UniProtKB/TrEMBL annotation:
GO cellular component terms given for this protein: plasma membrane
Protein species of origin: Digitaria exilis
GO BP field: innate immune response
Signal sequence, renumbered to the chain: 1-40
Name of the protein this chain belongs to: LysM domain receptor-like kinase 3
SMART domains: S_TKc
PANTHER family: CHITIN ELICITOR RECEPTOR KINASE 1-RELATED (PTHR46204), LYSM DOMAIN RECEPTOR-LIKE KINASE 3 (PTHR46204:SF10)
């Protein structure tokens, strides 16, 4: 099956400037949104200087905890920011919109670490100007991080956090959290501010004063110290769903229902019945007139337009959904808009194709994608010139274009591929996540269909792994590879668990993982995605086998049963690709002849792991690690990722982890890799993100 290069950039351009490490690029925005959580004389304490992690005794204990973070209003922009800062999924955020100042509540898994303290993990990227964060000129990276997290985070001892804040440096952080040892379900980490008292916290969060004092080992009338973390006992999830909450519109002034006193004239009464009846008749006549106008507009137009003779109204559903501009959401494209949109004059009727009956109602429901004219598509791609061709896929070619001053990728499909076209729109107009490629809109002509996506400047992951130098790409560093794996895992976790309808992608592979300008990964190509059916046993969709060999799970090949565990298997193969730099179907090492034996990468890596007892004695596994890494990687982290990949490609789907477990493991590997990176401070190649070719 041909490889996809959907939306991937392979234009003959100079390599982009090396970006900052790909962890937190929203920090400058955060610094504009942060309120002053620490003020007055206590601010000199450094925010969390007086805060210590909560002690624990059960080293294996993991619980759900919440952190209260001061946020300047709930909205899509803040949600994206918080997800990035706290390594949180969209479903992990709630908001306290009614209170002032407002707080966002972040759900985290809190663990009892070997230090016998409760902590959660995250990472932080130092902004381009440390001064912008309000830190002192001689501040360390730890000081900058403490200011950004308003006292909720502390750095691990030693490492990069104690060095000067180098712009772009990634700092591993511990979040202060806690697990309840009393009768409460959760503990909420809250940083005290001036004016707080135990009584005010009790009133705000609905916890008793005795419970707050017990959870924080407070004796007597201890005051609340500004800048110190306190643990608030809770029995329910705090706040409400984190959405674009806007203040309610002011209620209209109540109507004056009191009638002025009038003399009681028994001989004359006002004819209220006649007035009400007359108004009813008038409204009915107006409704009939409007209905007649709508019918005349619709049918009269079709009868008078010679181009519409013999055509079904269903053939014009695309035209009824037109829009003249892009929609935006939180700085990213928002493909769907609400309500009916009018066609633009640029969209000639000759350029539109028919759509199967019921598509508009079934696919778009209340949300409708932006529609571009065929002329716009043609102009933006320079009439589909070879210079703008990005790649070929199973269902069409992908071109680079500039639409309304925005770089885009345009998938060009034959009209016979309507089914795949509709599936991709149906999925991408319902799911939105930073790790999923964003659909902007579509266009159609008599013979072709076009999908318009956000443009991924650094192409596909495949181009950076498999013989990158011959394609004009640089190989990725170990840190970049782990971050890309984590991004893709979060995207899969989102469609598997956090959407209203759960989906199986069915074509996860390195060519369908795209890299943006900061080398953050986005999953693309949802043309084969399938809605999974919930049952008492599992979520599955029986279908004909589609996808790419080398990535297909054994049970899917055998039974055609697509489940979320099928995607987990394919993701495991991608992990093996990230480690080895080899393709999913590979030839024997050192034998490039056309008739040499071809084996699945999964079988090659599993054989090597079978002879690798530990990360200390890596043996055959080391021979399988991508030579482009040039031994610039932490052996224990590579081993852990390889073992995770092994679990993902287990023959028994029941034994494979779900994507939530994969995300947790990769987060831990990333943090360990960052700590290793800090220990290699003298090696500039480690910090470059990209490894220069030999």
């Amino acid at each position: 099956m041909p490889h996809h290069h959907h939306l991937a950039a392979s234009r003959p351009e100079p390599q982009p400037q090396l970006p900052m490490p790909p962890h937190r690029h929203l920090v400058p925005l955060l610094l504009l949104l942060l309120p002053l959580a620490v003020s007055g004389s206590d601010a000199d304490a450094g925010g969390n200087a007086t805060s210590a992690p909560l002690a624990c005794s059960e080293l294996s204990r993991v619980c759900t905890a919440f952190l209260a973070f001061p946020a300047a209003g709930a909205g899509a922009a803040n949600a994206t920011l918080l997800e990035s800062m706290f390594d949180a999924a969209p479903g992990d955020l709630t908001a306290d919109a009614a209170a002032s100042p407002g707080y966002a509540f972040v759900r985290k898994n809190c663990s009892c670490l070997p230090s016998r303290t409760y902590l959660a993990n995250t990472t932080y990227t130092i902004p381009s100007s440390a001064a912008a964060s309000g830190a002192a000129p001689n501040a360390t990276a730890a000081d900058v991080a403490a200011a950004a997290y308003a006292g909720l985070a502390v750095p691990p001892p030693g490492g990069a956090a104690q060095r000067p804040p180098r712009p772009g440096a990634v700092v591993a952080l511990h979040l202060l959290c806690g697990c309840s040892s009393g009768p409460w379900n959760y503990l909420l980490s809250y940083v005290g501010v001036d004016g707080d008292t135990v009584e005010s916290l009790s009133s705000r969060f609905g916890a008793s004063m005795d419970a707050i004092e017990a959870a924080n080992a407070m004796v007597g009338p201890d005051p609340i110290t500004a800048g110190k973390v306190y643990y608030i006992p809770l029995n329910s999830v705090p706040g409400q769903a984190y959405a674009a909450l806007s203040p309610p519109a002011p209620a209209p002034a109540p109507a004056d229902n009191t009638l002025p006193e009038t003399p009681d004239h028994h001989s004359t009464k006002f004819p209220y019945g006649w007035v009400i009846g007359g108004m009813g008749v008038a409204l009915a006549l107006i409704a009939i007139a409007l209905l007649a106008l709508v019918l005349w507009k619709f049918f009269g137009h079709n009868l008078q337009d010679p181009n519409n003779q013999g055509k079904s109204p269903d053939q014009h559903k695309f035209q009824l959904l037109k829009s003249g501009s892009f929609c935006y959401g939180s700085g990213r494209y928002l493909c769907c808009q609400f309500g009916n949109a009018k066609p633009t004059r640029a969209d000639g009727g000759d350029h539109h194709t028919s759509v199967p009956k019921g598509v508009a109602a079934d696919v778009f429901d209340k949300e409708k994608p932006v529609v571009f004219s065929y002329e716009e598509i043609l102009t933006s791609t320079d009439s589909f010139s070879d210079a703008n061709l990005l790649g070929h896929g199973t269902y069409g070619s992908v071109y680079y274009g500039v639409l309304r001053d925005q770089e885009v990728a345009i998938k060009r499909m034959m009209a016979t591929k309507t089914k795949e076209f509709i599936v991709e729109m149906k999925v991408l107009c319902k799911v939105h996540h930073a790790s999923l490629v964003e659909l902007i809109g579509y266009a159609a002509s008599k013979d072709e269909l076009f999908l318009v996506y956000e443009y991924s400047q650094n192409g596909s992951l495949k181009n950076h792994l498999h013989d990158p130098e011959s394609k004009g790409y640089s190989s990725l560093s170990w840190i970049f590879r782990v971050q890309i794996a984590l991004d893709a895992a979060r995207g899969l976790e989102y469609i598997h668990e956090h959407t209203k309808d759960h989906y199986v992608h069915r074509d996860i592979k390195s060519s369908n993982i795209l890299l943006d300008g900061s080398f953050r990964a986005k999953i693309s190509d949802f043309g084969l995605a399938k809605l999974v059916v919930k049952s008492s046993d599992a979520e599955a969709s029986v279908t004909k086998v589609v996808g790419t060999f080398g990535y297909l799970a054994p049970e899917y090949l055998r039974d055609g049963l697509a489940t979320t565990k099928s995607d987990v298997y394919a993701f495991g193969v991608v992990l093996f690709e990230l480690i080895s730099g080899k393709e999913a179907i590979t030839r024997a090492e050192g034998d490039a002849s056309s008739n040499s034996e071809r084996r699945s990468l999964a079988s090659v890596m599993l054989t090597a792991l079978g002879k690798c007892p530990s990360s200390v004695y890596m043996g055959n596994l080391k021979d399988c690690i991508d030579r482009n890494l040039r031994d610039l990687y932490p052996h224990d982290c590579v081993y852990k990722m390889a073992m995770l990949a092994k679990q993902c490609v287990d023959e028994d789907p029941v034994l494979r982890p779900d994507m939530k477990q994969v995300v947790i493991t990769l987060s831990q590997i990333l943090l360990s890799s960052i700590e290793w990176e800090a220990s290699q401070a003298g090696n500039s190649q480690v910090f470059s993100g990209l490894v220069a070719g030999r």
